Amino acid sequence: MTGRAEIRLAGRGGVFVADGCEIAGPFVHATGRWRWRTGANCAELRYSEPITRTWPAHEVREIRWQNIEVTA
In Å, how far are 6, 43, 60, 66 from 3, measured between CA atoms? Predict the structure, then answer.
């Protein structure tokens, strides 16, 4: 699959918000930014600078695909 996604990694806080994500064999390639919740009751969001990352698939705990269009 390819497209926009939120990626959670095993053993790491925060969510990687990907503008583009692709699963290619045993790897997940993504371009986007890290997002963390901070402040009282985790009410504030903080983002990193845009980056491109590649992870082995076994390090990825969850991928939540965004804006998937279903045609019937």
Answer: 10, 27, 16, 7
Look at residue 10 and give its three-state secondary structure: coil
- Residue 59 is predicted with a pLDDT of 95
Over range 9-18, report the average pLDDT. Answer: 91
pLDDT tens digits along 47-68: 999 999 999 999 999 999 987 6
How many whole angstroms separate alpha carbon 45 and alpha carbon 39?
8
Decide: 14 and 66 in contact? Cβ < 8 Å: no
Nearest to 54 by CA among 21, 26, 29, 17: 29
Paired with 35 in beta bridges are 15, 47
Asked whether the whole model's pTM tops 0.70, one would answer yes
Please state the domain extents for the chain: 2-65
